[in-house]
Every structure is written in C-alpha cells, then in structure tokens.
C-alpha cells in the first residue's frame, strides 16, 4: 500500500517541478513511484469541459463556483478506480493537485460574499469528494507557498514559451489567485482532512525520506 501524497499551490507555484523532483529521487533509491495530475485534460470529459468553460465556452457555467467545482470533482471520481490501483501497486503515489485544490478555489470564489460562505464551500467539497465519492484520503498534503507575485510571473512566462499552456480565466485573475493562496494557507493551518506541510519552494533536505518515514 503506497504513501499517497498530494502537491497543492496556486498556478505557477512549481507543483510539477516538485512532483518530478520527488519522483526522480525516489526512483533513484529503487522506490516504486506513480504520479497523477488533476485535472486530467485530454483524458476526462469533465476536465475538458472545465477547461473549455474557463476559456469562454459553455455559456455561464463559470459564473457558478459550485458548477465548476462539480466538474473538477467528477473528474476525480472517474479516476478513483485507477488511483486506487496505483496506490495498491506502488510504494508512493504523488498527485499534482487533488481535492484541496477544489476546496481552495471554491472557497476563494465565494469568499467575497462572506466568511461563512467560504467555510460552507470548503465543507461541501470535503463531503462531496471524500464522503460521497469516497476518494482516497492523502497521507500528506504539501502546499507550495511561494509568493503570489512570483507564481503569477511564472505563469505568464510559461504561457509565453508554451503555446499549449495559455492562461485561463482563473489564471488571469490576480485577485482570485491571492484569495486562493489565502484559502490554501487556512486549510494548511487547520490540517484539513489529513497532515499538511507548507513549503517555500526552496529545496528541503531530507523531505523525500521524511514523507515515507
């Protein structure tokens, strides 16, 4: 049974870099590693619909934070059997984004209404994905808490050099990204669902070994 680790952070935080670095280190030590990334663009109709909506298609779908969250959640529900197989067959499984991403973005979108609305959104995501959909609970959740401005510039640079990674509505909304960062920090402080580690983005000696201890 694998240790299941999720990597979270706002767009441009460096999640893929961290996932790849952990994977290479473990593989060099003979550890069986599998990775998965959400949303599963190109694999899941729910993920593709969400991407299209964030680029102006499908009418007013993006007007509803809950509608968007449901699409992302359904992507993970569809992937659940494959994810459980990965966990059963490997020593460690790392996910680039997971349920906490949905909680943070949904809470950030409704936070302007009230603090209560943000808390309710977070609980709704937890109940939907972990209770109703019975998704695997992470053993560790890693939050890459790089400065919002640094992450934003990385996202811009990435879009300029990779035509396939143009910024969507969420990525272009600087105020939203700042609220998402705040929501993530609240989840980490509360140790939401399972243990969290907050990382600065700088290398952490011994992190890979600590996560599997």
UniProtKB/TrEMBL annotation:
It is an enzyme of class 2 (transferase). InterPro entries: P-loop_NTPase (IPR027417), Thymidylate_kin-like_dom (IPR039430), Thymidylate_kinase (IPR018094). GO terms for molecular function: ATP binding; dTMP kinase activity. The keyword Nucleotide-binding applies. One of its GO terms (cellular component) is cytosol. One of its GO terms (biological process) is dUDP biosynthetic process. Keywords: ATP-binding, Kinase, Nucleotide biosynthesis, Nucleotide-binding, Transferase. Residues 7-188 form the Thymidylate kinase-like domain. Its EC number is 2.7.4.9. Phosphorylation of dTMP to form dTDP in both de novo and salvage pathways of dTTP synthesis. Belongs to the thymidylate kinase family. PANTHER family: THYMIDYLATE KINASE, UMP-CMP KINASE 2, MITOCHONDRIAL. This is Thymidylate kinase. The lineage of its organism: Bacteria, Bacillati, Actinomycetota, Actinomycetes, Mycobacteriales. The gene is tmk.
């Amino acid at each position: 049974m694998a240790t299941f680790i999720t990597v979270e952070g706002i767009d441009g935080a460096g999640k893929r870099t961290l996932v790849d670095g952990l994977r290479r280190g473990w593989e060099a030590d003979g550890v069986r590693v599998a990775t998965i990334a959400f949303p599963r663009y190109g694999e899941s109709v729910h993920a593709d619909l969400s991407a299209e909506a964030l680029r102006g298609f499908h009418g007013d779908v993006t007007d509803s934070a809950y509608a968007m969250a449901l699409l992302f959640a359904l992507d993970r529900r569809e992937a659940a059997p494959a994810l459980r197989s990965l966990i059963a067959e490997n020593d460690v499984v790392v996910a680039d984004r997971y349920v906490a991403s949905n909680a943070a973005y949904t809470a950030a979108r409704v936070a302007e209404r009230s603090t209560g609305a943000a808390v309710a959104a977070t609980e709704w995501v937890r109940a939907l994905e972990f209770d109703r959909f019975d998704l695997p609970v992470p053993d560790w959740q890693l939050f890459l808490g790089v400065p919002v401005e640094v992450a934003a510039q990385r996202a811009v640079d990435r879009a300029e050099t990779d035509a396939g990674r143009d910024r969507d509505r969420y990525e272009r909304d600087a105020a939203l990204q700042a609220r998402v960062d705040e929501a993530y920090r609240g989840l980490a402080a509360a140790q939401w669902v399972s243990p969290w580690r907050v990382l600065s983005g700088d290398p952490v000696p011994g992190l890979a070994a600590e996560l599997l201890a």
